[in-house]
Amino acid sequence: MKFNRLRVLGFKSFVEPSEFVIEPGLTGVVGPNGCGKSNLVEALRWVMGESSYKNMRASGMDDVIFSGSATRPARNTAEVTLFLDNSDRTAPAGFNDTDELQVSRRIEREAGSIYRINGKEARAKDVQLLFADQSTGARSPSMVGQGRIGELIQAKPQARRALLEEAAGISGLHSRRHEAELRLRAAEQNLERLDDVVGELQSQIENLKRQARQASRFKNLSADIRKAEATLLHLRWTQAKEQEAEAKSALSTATTEVGDRAAAQMQAAKDQAVAAHKLPELREAEAASAAALQRLSIAKGQIEEEAKRLAERRAELEKRLSQLEADIARENQIVADNAEILARLDEEERTLNAEQAGAADRGVEAKAAFEAAGEKLKHSEAELASVTARRAEATAERTQYERALNEAIGRRDRAEARIAASNAELEEIAAKIAALADPAEKQVAVDQAVGALETAEALAREAETAVAEARTAENAARPPVQEARSELARIETEARTLAKVLSAGTGDQFPAVLEKVTVERGFEAALGAALGEDLDVPLDRSAPVHWTQIAPGPDDPALPSGVRPLADVVDAPAELSRRLSQIGLVGEGEGETFQASLKVGQALVSQKGALWRWDGYRASADAPTAAAQRLAQKNRLAELEAEAEAARARLTSVETALATAEAATRQAADADRAAREGVRAAQAAVGAAREALARAEKAAGDLVGRRTALQEAHTGLEEARDEAMEAVQAAQTGLGNAADPAALQEEVGRLSAIVATDRSALADARAAHDGLAREAAARVRRLETIAADRKKWVERAGSADTHIQSLRARREEAASEAAGLEDAPAEIELRRRALMSQLSQAETLRKAAADRLAEAETRQKTADTAAADALQALSTAREARARAEERVMAADERRKEVEARIREALNVPPHLVIQHAELAQDEPLPDLGEIERRLERLKIERERLGAVNLRAEEEQKELSERLELIVTEREDIIEAIRKLRGAIQSLNREGRERLLAAFEVVNGQFQRLFSHLFGGGTAQLQLIESDDPLEAGLEILARPPGKRPQTMTLLSGGEQALTAMALIFAVFLTNPAPICVLDEVDAPLDDHNVERFCNLMDEMAATTDTRFVIITHNPITMSRVNRLFGVTMPEQGVSQLVSVDLETAEQLREAS
C-alpha cells in the first residue's frame, strides 16, 4: 500500500477542509513556529489509530476538535481521511477488493470517535492492525516526532527493543499473542469450573439414586397414613355430632329457666316502682324547709358582715383625719423653705455676672500671646530643618563612598582567593589525569566477565531443564493424590451420615432388638419382610412389649426339604433363634412351590423381600421396610469403614510419591536458583566491568572538560580582580573630597535648643488661653442652671397653696361622714334579734320533714334489694343459657372444622369417609386413642426416612443428560487449550526467528549508516539482559572517528543525535514503511551534518518506495526536498496549507 493524500477538516487549527498530497520522494513542510505543522503530523497519527490524548498534546480527546478563534465559532466535529493506493492488493482480506482504501476517523464532541474503511464502520483494532501489518502505524518508528531522538537516547535497553520488533514486523504478532494468552487463561479457568461441575453432578446423581429408593418407601407409608387419618377423621366427626346433640339439649333447659326468672324479676320491679313514686313529694318538702333555713342563715350572716363593715369604716375615717392634719402642716413648712432658696439663687447670679464682665479682656490678651509664640516656633523649626538637611546630605555622601570602597575591596579579595583556588584545582586535575588507569585493562576485564557470564548461562539452562522435568513429574503425581483424597472424603462423609442416621434411632428408653441384629449383605429386605415391626420390639423385660428367650422344642416342625433357614445369614440374640428357625430362604420363583408344605408358624422369604406364610398369606417384594433399610445401613457402614482403611492406605502411598516428587522439584529449583544467582552475579560482574570501563572513559573526558572550564574561568577572575582594584582607587578619591558632617552638628545642637525653648513658651500660652475659655463656659452653664432652678421653685410655691386648700376640704368631708355613722350599730342589733327567732322556727320544721323522708327511703331500699336479687337471678339464668349457646356453637364449629378437614384432606362428604377408612357400617368403631397412636407411629416411621425427594428419578435423568453435555463441552475446551498453546508457541518461535533475522539486518544497516553519517568510525548493536530475544534489551556501542568505543550515553549531544538517527533509519531500511515522517529531526545538527542527513534522505528515497515527509526550519533541507508545503496562520488560531513543487518550478525557470 502507498499513502496518496491526507484530508483534514476541523482537526485542531485546520478548521477549513485541507488536503495534504503525499507523493514519491521528499515532501517538505515549512512554516513559522506555532503555525500548525505538527498538527498535520498528529492528524496522520490520529487517523491511524492513536488512542492516547496525551500523545495528541491534549487534556482530552475532544480537544482535537477546533475550539474556535476570535472570528470563528468552535466546531462540534472533526474528521481526518487517509487515501491509500491498494493496487498491489496487500491490504487484509476483508478490504482487499478495491484499488483505493479510504480510512477515516470522525469524532463528535462528547460522543466519541468512529472509524470507517471505505465508508463501512470498523473497529479501532482493525485499523491499527491494518497499518501494523504494513510496518507503520500511530506509534511506528517511521513516525519520528519532535523529541523522538531524545527519547531514544534516554530510553532503557528494554524500550529500545521495540525498534527491532518494528523492523521484524512482529508488532501485530505481539497483539495476536496477547489475545491468544487471554483466551488460553479464560479456557483454563472454564476447564477448572467444568471439572468442579462434573464432580458435583456425579455426586448429585449418586444421591438421587438413594433418594429414589427412599421415595418408594415414603409412598407406601403415606398410603397407610392416609387410611389412618381417614379413620381418625371419621371418629372425630361422629364424636362431634354427638357432642352437638348434647349441647342443644342443655340449651333448651337453660331457655326455660330464663323464662321463669324473667317473671319474678318483673314483679320485683313493680314493687320497686310503687315505693319510688312516694319519694319525690317527701324530698320536695324536706328541700323546701332546708331552703328556708338556709335563707335565714344567710340573712344572719349578712347582718353580722354589715356590722363589721361599719366598724372598719369608722376606724378608717379616724385614721384619715389624722393623716390630713399632718399633710397640712408639712405643706406650710415647704412654703416657708421655698422663699429662703430663691434668695440664695439671686445672690449667686449677681456674683457670676460680675465675674463674666472682666473675663472678655483677659481672653483677648491670652489669644495674642498664643499666636506670637506660634510664629516664633515656626521660624526656629525652619532654620533647624535646613541645617539638618545639609548635615544628612554630607553624611549620606560619605557613607556611599565608604560602602563602595568596602565592596570593591571585597570583590578584589574574593577574586584573588578564587584565582588561588583555581590554580590549586588545575594542579590537582593535572595530577589526576596523570594517575588515570588505562582503558585497555578495563576492556580485558570486560571480556573476562562476559566469558564467565556465558558459562553461568549454560549452567542455568541445564538447571532450568531439570526443574521443568521435576515439575512434570510432580504434576503427574498430584492428580492421584487429589483423587485419593476425594475418594476418602466421599467415604468418610457417607460413613458419618449413616452413623448419624443410625444413632438417631437409638435414643429410646427401650432399644429395639434391631440394634443387636446383623445380617449378611443383600439379605436385609428378607429379614425385614420376615419379622416386620417385631424388630422394633425391645429385649428389656421391663418394657410392656418385649422378646423372651424360649428354647426350641422337640416338637418344632422342620422347614421343607431344600429350604435354607434364615438364621444362617442372620446373627441375632438367642431370643430370636426359635422365630428365625421357622423362617426359610427361597428363590424368587420357589415360594409358591414350598408354601403348601409349610407347617403352622412357618414362613418363607426371598432375598428381595417377598413373603409366604403357612396360613396362605402372600406379600410380594416391594420397597424395603424401615427395619430392612436400617440393617442395610448398618452393613453399608461396616463396608465403608473397611473401604476407608483401604483409601487411607492408598492416600498414604500416593502422598509419599508426591512428597518425593516435590522434594525433587525443590532440589531442582534450589539448583536453578543457585544457577540463576550465578548468572545474576556474572551479569553484575559484566555490568561492573563495563561500568568501570565507562567510568574510566568518562573520567578522562570529565577531567579534560573541567580543566578547560577552569582555564576559562581563571581568565575571567583576573579581569574581575583588575576591575575591583580600579573601583577601590575611585572610592578612596571620592571619600577624600567629601564634606565633613561634624562641623554642621554644632549648629544643629544650637538650633535644637532654641526650638525646644520656643515649643515650651507656645505650650504655656496655649494652656493660659484654654483655661480662660473653660472658666467662661462654666460660668455660662451655671447661670442657665440658676434660671431653671428659680423657675422650678416659684412653680412649687404656687402648687403648695393649692394643695393646702384641697387637704382642708377633704378633712371636713371625713369629719361629716364620721358623725353620720354614730347611730348605725343600734339599728343593726335590733334586726339581728328578730332574725334569730325566725331561724329557730325554721330548724324545727326542717327536722320533721327529714324524719318522714328517711322512713320512705328505708322502704325504697328494701324494694330495690328485692328487685336486684331478682335481676341477678335472671342474669345468672341468661348466662347459663349463653354458655349453653356457646357450647352448641363450639360443638357446631368442631363438627364443621372436622368436616372442613375431611374435605381438605380427602375431598369427600363426611358420611363417605367411612369408605376411605375401610370400615363396615355395622362394625364397632375402633378406639380413638389406638388410632392416634398408630398414626403417630406411622408418621414417626416416615419421619425416620428423613427428607424425601419424590422427583429424584426425574432429576437423576435430567442431571445425567446434563453431565453428558458438559463432558462433551469439556473435551472441546481441552482441544481448544491444546490448539491455543500450540498457536502461542508458534507465535513465539516465529517472533524469535524474525527478531533475530531483523537484528542481523538492522545491525549491518546501522554500522553502514553510522559510518556514512560520521564520515568513518564504527558502531554495533548488542542484545543484553536476557537470552530470550523477545525479552532482551538493545544496547548501542559507538566509536566516532578518532575516539574510543563507548556507550551512547557517553557521546556528545550532536553525536548522540546522529547515532540515534542512524539507528532509526537502520530499522526503517530493514522493514521499509509506506511513509516516513520526520518532524524537525535536523534541528540539533550543524550545516555539515545537515548535508549528510540530506544525502542519506536522497539515497533512501531512491532505493525504497517510501514517501518521506520532512518538517523543517533548515534552509539546506528545504532546498533538497522535491516539493514544499507551507503552513501559515492568516488569522489567529486558524492554519492554512499551501504547496510549491520545486522540481516543476525549477523546470519552468530553466525553460524561461
What does this protein look like?
The chain is α+β, with helices and mostly antiparallel strands. 69% of the residues lie in helices and 9% in strands. It has 19 helices and 22 strands. A six-stranded antiparallel β-sheet has the order 2-1-4-5-6-7. Strand 14 (611-613) and strand 15 form a beta hairpin. Helix 5 crosses helix 15 (952-1014), helix 7 (524-531) packs across helix 10 and helix 15 (952-1014) packs across helix 16 (1053-1070).
How would a textbook summarize the main sheet?
Answer: 6 strands, antiparallel
User: Could you list the spans in which at least 5 consecutive residues all have pLDDT below 50?
Assistant: none
Which structural class fits the helix and strand makeup?
A: alpha+beta
The backbone outline, from C-alpha atoms, is flat
Measured distance between first and last alpha carbons = 38 Å
Count of individual beta strands: 22
**Helix residue percentage:** 55-70%
Number of separate helices:
19
Strands of the widest sheet, in order across it, are: 2-1-4-5-6-7
Question: Which helices and strands occur, and which strands form pairs?
Answer:
Blueprint: E1 2-9, E2 18-21, E3 25-30, H1 37-47, E4 77-85, E5 100-108, E6 112-117, E7 120-122, H2 124-132, E8 143-144, H3 148-154, H4 157-168, H5 171-435, H6 439-504, E9 518-519, H7 524-531, E10 564-565, E11 570-571, H8 577-581, E12 583-586, H9 591-595, E13 603-606, E14 611-613, E15 618-619, H10 626-737, H11 742-820, H12 824-905, H13 913-916, H14 928-944, H15 952-1014, E16 1018-1024, E17 1033-1039, E18 1046-1047, H16 1053-1070, E19 1075-1079, H17 1087-1103, E20 1107-1111, H18 1115-1120, E21 1123-1131, E22 1134-1141, H19 1142-1151
Helix pairs in contact: 3-16, 4-15, 4-16, 5-10, 5-11, 5-12, 5-14, 5-15, 6-10, 7-10, 15-16, 15-17
